[in-house]
Structures are given as structure tokens and as C-alpha cells.
Write a structure and sequence with these properties.
alpha/beta; Na+/H+ antiporter like fold; Rossmann fold; Alpha-Beta Plaits; six-stranded parallel β-sheet; four-stranded antiparallel β-sheet; 29 helices; about 65% helix; about 5% strand; elongated
Length: about 675
């Protein structure tokens, strides 16, 4: 390997590690990180790495693997289930957006090829950013989330015709800049013919071939076969004068229909991620930010089309399909940007020299700028839509009213019930437990198929987004005994806690989280208790290990009981007693409850816990019994009186010091 190539790769990887780590810490899409790496180290930045043929070739492999992975995700069942949203809604969005931009570009004097490319670029959105952000926000199965995914599916399909036509445009009469209809028709027919051949080959050859390969039980052989099929299909379409990505997409679609789909996805992922990162880096290297100042009017114009007109088209089409104003606007905001397939179309057109340098920079800059604001638009899409609707005095509309009505009907006869937010594995486990104990509950979930199956089974599960105030209010929150959030999405949990506390401050709310990194945020937002998966799993693993090593069950129960007392406030409050102390003697650091009676001659009479400095001793006053009445969790400003029985909680050593402070005799006045 050439030494300069080695240095370039080392620089690229080193900078990528640092930049992408920073972007992930900022909760920004990794795609933006790779683009920034290309801008930073490329010829228009620090100039550390040249955007040479090697880098471009590796980037093209990234696109090939991306299209192969997209093909794997497609299935006839998915397309049939979402056929209306995908083909009608998605088709109208792509046709109207690309058509309008083509007419607009022609009006500004661009030739047919450049106008066609501009239309294709404007029609595409970022699948990577949208899917990742919606999944993090627990909105992937919401109505606007499903609409956005449906449109993205059609966009992924629509990129194929664009990639077929671009070489046809390049093969036309360059002298007169006229598109020869016969050439276009020939390329389309060739594309259809090649697609049919690959589909037939996939049905008759690939499935039997992979059965034979899988029978060898060799991971290396299986992975080599996958790579060979993906690259071979790409080479066939390229040799036929079509795009590399068309063959890769078709090969992925064929293998996606086999039983080896998930294994292929797992094997191809490392190659896809690495080469796709190189593709985005190579795109970033093409971007000259100095052109922002030279062409800033044009860049802002294209950006306005992406963020403004594209959102308008999506919103209007969604409304025509019968969706409410709220859902339509949220879908429009989520998809109003450029995407990675816009880069694919641009790179293909630049490879065929169909765009001038200035046009390429304008399109590239506009897409990058739109993708930079996209994570923030998606994150606050609900907030933006609510303010827009309030501004025009519009209702969220659509099925919002019917959803809350259905939830109200399901919760109509409930009182002292439990509201379960999320009905996955954990939610269903909680529901079974409550059912066995005769405790009524209502569960809210965003997966329509799961809700349908649960309701068919007679369970009180309804479709609804628990991050929305009207939804959880309709679940009878004012009459509920408790609420439990069973998913591990911190962002959604915080939103649910905020809405629930606004409706009812005294409701006990349990929250599940993956680990303890967000414990403080959740507790501050109003969680009564936060249960971390990692804590409970570690306890169960240790318990089973101790049993396997010959330990006795009583010791395990005592140890896990102490650990739970340390971790969970609701489970603290055990008085050790003599039997428990004999079984496992208390250490000085063990936290326990202890009662203490304030005698009339003690210095604590007439003073508060703050004045006595109990907080400095890390001792909590959990309860005070006065004249036969018990008050739990008293305020730090409460004044102790004679004969009060005080319940203290803290470490054994701290409790001893606290008792000494409380026992001090009152000083006699001279």
C-alpha cells in the first residue's frame, strides 16, 4: 500500500473517531459528523486529505452497500400493508416536489438534465436521520411517524428511476443539450429488463445457492457469498450502462425475501457502516464553504424550497388523504429537508459531468444546511405544530378526538386503577401481575398491531401516545392509584412525567430506565421511583450465581433486600430487629430505620431538624408521631415538640451521632 494512502486513511479514521464521538454526545446524527469530517480535512478545509480516485471509489462502495441494505428492508408484505401511504402519499409527494422544482429550474434557465437532477434532489429526505430521531423520541409508531416512514419508503424506491435516467441524459446530444427520447426510453427498457433478470435469478438461483452455503456452517463463506452477490449485481447493471446502485438494491430486495435476511443484515452491517461513512466524508470533501458567501442568495433560495415548499406539499397531500392538521404538519416538518439519496443523485450526476461546479456547490450546501437543522425540527415538531395550530385557532384534528374518546370509554368504569405507559414485554408482565392480584389497569401503547392483538384477547389496552396530556388525562389519571412507565426512552419518559404532574401532583409514578445515568433527571421531573434494568439484572445474576455456588436462599434474600434498601427509597424503611441483626450483623454503613422519642428535657424541643444539623449528618426524618397522629416526610422546618416519636433513616454510624445530638439536655436558664 502506498505510504500516502496509509497516512490519509489514518488521518480520516482518527478525525472521524473524535468528531463522531462529539456529534453523538451532542445527540446529532452521525451523518452530519461524517460530512463535517470531509469538510474539515478535505481540500477546501485544512487540506490534509485529497478527494482522489481512491476515496471516491471507496465512497461508491458505501452507496452500493447502502442500497443493498435498503433492498433488504423492502418486503412485499410491508409494501402491501402500507400501500396507500407508500404509493399514493409518497408518490404524490415525489411527483409534485420534483415536478415543481423542475419547472422552477427551467424558468431560471437550467437545461433539462440539471432541472431533472434538481427535482430529484429536492424530493429526497434523510432516512437515516428521521428513523433514528423518531425512534429515540418514541414516535416511530405514532401516526405522523408511520406517515413519514411510508413517504421515505417511496423515496427509497423513487431514487432508482432517477439513477437509471441520469446515465441516459449523459448519453444524449451534449452539443444541443437536448434529451433524445429514444435514448431515455431505451435506458428505461434496459433497466426494466435487467431488473427482471436479477429478480428471476434471485428466485431461481440465490435461494438454493444460499441453502447450500448455509449448510456448510461457515460464517466466512456466508459473508463472502453475500459480498459477491451484492457487488456482482452492481457490476452487471453498471456494465449495462446503468447505475451500480440499481443492481445492489435489486440483489438486496431478492435476498430480503429469503429466510437468511437477518443473518445477511448482521454480516453486511460492518461493511455498510464503514464504506457509507467514507461516502459521506467524500461528499463533505466536495463542499467549499467559501461558496456560501458567493452564492448565498441561491443557497438560501434552494433551502427555502427544501424547508418551505416541500413541507407545504407534504402537508397538503397528507390533508387530502384525510389526516388531521396536526398529523399533516408534523409529518411535513419531519421530512422538510434534503437527504443522503440527494447526495447519491448528485454524486452520480457529477460523475457524469451533468452539473456545473457552481450548481453542485449550491445543491450540496443547501442539503447540508437543511440536514443540520433537521434534528432540531424533528425533536421539537410537536411543540412547533401546537404553536402553529394555536396561531391559526385550529384543532389538532384527524383521529385525535376519536383516540381520546376511545381511551375515555375504556377507562370509564375504572377507579383506583393503574395506568401502564407502554405495553411491550415489561408492560405485559406488569399487566399479568396486576390481573392476577385483581387490580384493574389501562395500558397505552403506540404499536397498532400489538394493541389490536391485546384487545382481541380481552385486555384493556388502547392506542395512545402517553407523552400527550389529553391522552393520559383520558386514561382516568385523576382516579388512578398509580402510573408506571415501562419503556426505557428517557426523552419520552420526561415528557410523560411533565404532563402527568401537570394533571396530578400526588400520583405515585414508577419509571423504568436502562441504567442510572438519567436517574436524577427523572426524579427531578417527578418520578416517585426509578428502576434501572442494569441494577436488577446484576442482582438476579449475583443471586443465581450464589445459588449455583452452594449458597442458601435465606442469605440471598437478606443480601438483595439490603441492596434494595440502599437503592430504592420506597423499599427503605425496615427496622432491623433482633432476628435480622443476628442473621446478618449490621455494619456501620448499613442504612436502617430507627425510632427516637423526644423527652421534655432534650435540647431538640422547640427546634427544627435544620437547626439541629441532621441534614449535615446525612440523617433523614421520615416521620413524626404526635398525639397519636403520624405525619410522613415532614418538612425540614417542622418544630420538634416534647413526646414526639421521630422516625430517623440513615447509616448506623450517622444515626448514633444524630441520637447524641437529640439527647443533649436543654440548657438551664440562669
Amino acid at each position: 500500500m502506498d505510504s500516502q494512502v496509509s497516512v490519509d486513511v489514518l488521518i480520516l479514521l482518527s478525525v472521524s473517531v473524535v468528531v463522531v464521538a462529539v456529534f453523538r454526545w451532542l445527540r446529532l446524527a452521525h451523518v452530519l459528523g461524517y460530512l463535517f469530517v470531509g469538510i474539515l480535512i478535505g481540500p477546501y478545509g485544512l487540506g490534509w486529505v485529497d478527494n482522489d480516485q481512491t476515496t471516491q471509489s471507496l465512497g461508491e462502495l458505501g452507496v452500493v452497500f447502502l442500497m443493498f441494505a435498503i433492498g433488504l428492508e423492502f418486503s412485499r408484505a410491508t409494501l402491501l400493508a402500507l400501500r396507500t401511504s407508500v404509493f399514493v402519499l409518497g408518490g404524490l409527494q415525489v411527483a409534485l416536489t420534483s415536478g415543481f422544482v423542475m419547472v422552477l429550474a427551467r424558468g431560471f434557465g437550467l437545461d433539462f438534465g440539471s432541472s431533472f437532477i434538481a427535482g430529484g434532489v429536492a424530493a429526497m429526505s434523510s432516512t437515516a436521520i428521521v428513523i433514528k430521531q423518531l425512534a429515540e423520541q418514541l414516535e416511530l409508531n405514532s401516526r405522523h411517524g408511520r406517515l413519514a416512514v411510508s413517504i421515505l419508503l417511496f423515496q427509497d424506491l423513487a431514487v432508482i428511476p432517477f439513477l437509471i435516467v441520469i446515465p441516459a441524459i449523459a448519453a444524449t446530444d451534449a452539443l444541443h443539450q437536448q434529451v433524445v427520447t429514444g435514448t431515455l426510453l431505451l435506458m428505461l427498457l434496459k433497466g426494466i429488463g435487467i431488473s427482471i433478470l436479477i429478480i428471476l435469478a434471485g428466485y431461481w438461483v440465490l435461494r438454493p445457492l444460499f441453502h447450500v452455503i448455509a449448510s456448510q456452517r461457515s460464517n466466512e463463506l456466508f459473508m463472502l457469498a453475500v459480498l459477491t452477490v451484492a457487488l456482482a449485481a452492481a457490476w452487471i447493471t453498471h456494465e449495462a450502462g446503468l447505475s451500480l446502485t440499481l443492481g445492489a438494491f435489486l440483489a438486496g430486495m431478492m435476498l430480503g425475501e429469503t429466510e437468511f435476511k437477518h443473518q445477511i443484515e448482521s454480516d453486511i452491517r460492518p461493511f455498510q457502516d464503514v464504506f457509507l461513512a467514507l461516502f459521506f466524508v467524500s461528499i463533505g470533501m466536495l463542499l467549499d464553504f467559501s461558496d456560501l458567501f458567493e452564492y448565498w442568495q441561491w443557497i438560501l433560495g434552494v433551502l427555502a424550497v427544501l424547508l418551505g415548499f416541500k413541507a407545504l406539499v407534504i402537508g397538503l397531500v397528507a390533508r387530502l388523504m384525510g389526516h388531521g392538521p396536526g398529523v399533516s404538519l408534523r409529518t411535513a416538518i419531519i421530512l422538510a429537508h434534503g437527504g443522503e439519496f440527494g447526495f447519491v443523485i448528485l454524486s452520480e450526476s457529477m460523475r457524469h459531468e451533468l452539473l456545473s461546479e457552481s450548481l453542485s456547490q449550491i445543491f450540496l450546501s443547501s442539503i447540508v444546511l437543511s440536514m443540520m437543522v433537521t434534528p432540531f425540527l424533528i425533536r421539537y415538531n410537536g411543540w412547533l405544530v401546537r404553536h402553529v395550530l394555536d396561531l391559526f385557532s385550529l384543532q389538532y384534528g384527524g383521529r385525535e378526538g376519536s383516540i381520546t374518546s376511545q381511551i375515555k370509554a375504556s377507562a370509564a368504569g375504572l377507579s383506583d386503577h393503574v395506568v401502564i405507559c407502554g405495553y411491550g414485554w415489561t408492560g405485559q408482565g406488569v399487566g399479568r401481575f396486576l390481573e392476577q392480584e385483581g387490580i384493574e389497569f389501562i395500558a397505552l401503547d403506540l404499536d397498532p398491531s400489538r394493541v389490536r392483538e391485546a384487545r382481541n384477547a380481552g385486555e384493556n389496552v388502547v392506542y395512545g401516545d402517553p407523552t400527550r396530556g389529553p391522552v393520559i388525562e383520558a386514561s382516568g389519571l385523576d382516579r388512578a392509584r398509580a402510573m408506571i412507565i415501562t419503556h426505557t426512552n428517557t426523552y419520552a419518559s420526561l415528557r410523560t412525567l411533565t404532563k402527568a404532574r401537570a394533571i396530578r401532583e400526588d400520583l405515585p409514578i414508577l419509571v423504568r430506565t436502562r441504567d442510572e445515568s438519567d436517574l436524577d433527571r427523572l426524579m427531578q421531573a417527578g418520578a416517585t421511583e426509578v428502576i434501572a434494568d442494569t441494577v436488577e439484572v446484576s442482582m438476579m445474576l449475583a443471586s443465581h450465581l450464589f445459588l449455583l455456588l452452594g449458597g442458601d436462599l435465606d442469605t440471598i434474600l437478606k443480601r438483595t433486600g439490603y441492596l434494595h434498601q440502599e437503592r430504592y427509597r420506597l423499599l427503605t424503611g425496615y427496622y432491623p430487629g433482633q432476628a435480622l441483626a443476628r442473621a446478618a450483623p449490621l455494619s456501620e454503613d448499613q442504612k436502617v430505620l430507627r425510632t427516637f422519642t423526644i423527652e421534655p428535657h432534650f435540647n431538640a424541643v422547640g427546634r427544627t431538624p435544620l437547626e439541629l444539623g441532621l441534614d449535615a449528618l446525612n440523617v433523614e426524618v421520615r416521620a413524626i408521631k404526635r398525639h397519636g397522629l403520624r405525619a410522613t416526610d415532614p418538612q425540614p422546618e417542622v418544630v420538634f415538640r416534647a413526646d414526639d416519636v421521630v422516625v430517623l433513616y440513615g447509616r448506623n454510624s450517622d444515626l448514633k451521632r444524630a441520637e447524641q445530638v437529640l439527647r443533649r439536655r436543654m440548657r438551664r436558664k440562669r
